Amino acid sequence: MGVFSTGGVGIDLGSANVTICLENEGVVLREPSYVLTLREDTDEILAVGRDARQMLGRTPKDVSLISPVMDGAVGNIELATALIQRLAEKALGKRRALEKNRLVVSMSQGCTRVERTALEEAVRTAGAKRSALVRSSVAAAMGAGVPIEEPRGSMLICIGGSTTEVTIVSMNGVVAARTMRTGSLALDEAIMRYVRREKGLIIGQRTAEDLKIDLGNAMRSPALVREKASLRGRDASSGKPATVEITAIDIHNAIETPLRALVENIRDAFENIPAELAEDILPQGVYLSGGGARLEGIADRLSEMLGLSVTLGENPQDDVAVGCCMIAASERMMQKFEQSGCLIEV
What is the DSSP letter of 42? Predict the structure, then answer.
């Protein structure tokens, strides 16, 4: 157990999901980053997380469904604070759950000063006894088991909901980094557009995400034609409920354009790293992390494109939260990352 009575808490505050990891317990909660409020009074919160997301596409006129975290940045401080507090209470099973804990929350590598200030305010207001922000790429590296303390460069690609970060870490710090404002949510949007254009069917973001998880594949192969599913939605011309058949090759075609842009950006980032760091990376390959890393075939595609081995953990979507928790649980680790500029106490 950590310094305080209930130990360290790590939170990955993502654009798509909030993931909470507790010291000695691991990941205990992962819920969508949504808050349901009254349209005329956003202080009146009706639901958060999974309960709020169930209203996606079904909200009455007097209710708003808001995502307070977009593109890795806090857009609404009050709602982001409420999201952290309520989901932490759910995870720990008590009111004012964070008041005796040490809390570490992820912060996008590419966030601006204004975005960081907003995140600091949201985390500070959440009410933890002690709280800090840590670079999400560093947290992901910790959670993924990257040898971050060694005096050689290690490359990590973290594909989140709205951001993708390519980072080289060494000696507990970030040596080089590039952040792209694109991620797995762009694939969901591409599926929605494709299904409407090619199948004449209107589907929601939840359905698109399910299709990506069940049928999505970054690598094209003849076998994809045999993987099929029945898809229900609203006919684009008549507005009536309709059912169509969709195959894995359809989903591959739908996501190919944003996926190609994503991997090309990753290749561009890799080609611009200093030669000395490239020498460190070539023998060990690269590490892949983040929720977007769960897309079938993405590790193989990146390996083929970069000509390197790609290491993918069992639960890449949990790496950031696990890393945050590991840092929160160790005073020594917090000090090391603060000295390297990767951690900020708030």
Answer: T
pTM of this structure: 0.91
Domain boundaries, the chain: 8-140+319-345
Using the CB atoms, write b or e for 220-243: b if 16+ within 10 Å.
Answer: eeeebeebeeebebeeeeeeeebe
Provide the phi-psi class of 233: left if phi over 0, else alpha when psi is between -120 and 50, else beta: beta
Handedness of CA 269, 275, 277, 282 (dihedral sign): positive
Name the residue type at position 76: N
Q: How far is the C-alpha of 196 from the C-alpha of 321, rounded, in Å?
A: 35
pLDDT 10s digits, 99-122: 888 999 999 888 889 999 999 999
By the 10 Å C-beta count (0-12 exposed, 13-18 middle, 19+ buried), 134 is classed as: buried
Question: In this structure, what token pair is assigned to residue 212?
Answer: 């990506």
Tell me how far apart the alpha carbons of residues 107 and 74 are, in angstroms, rounded to a whole number: 10
Contact 178, 201 (CB under 8 A): no
Instruction: Tell me the residue type at 255.
Output: I
Q: Tokens standing for 326?
A: 């590991």
Q: Which helix (H) or strand (E) holds 156?
A: strand 154-159
Tell me the three state secondary structure of residue 5: coil
**153's tokens:** 């460069």
pLDDT in tens, 47-66: 999 999 888 777 788 888 89
Give residue 192's identity as a one-letter amino acid code. Answer: M
For the domain made up of 8-140+319-345, give the CATH fold. Answer: Nucleotidyltransferase; domain 5 (3.30.420)
Half-sphere exposure of 153 (CA within 13 A, CB side): 21
Query: Tokens representing 4?
Result: 């305080």
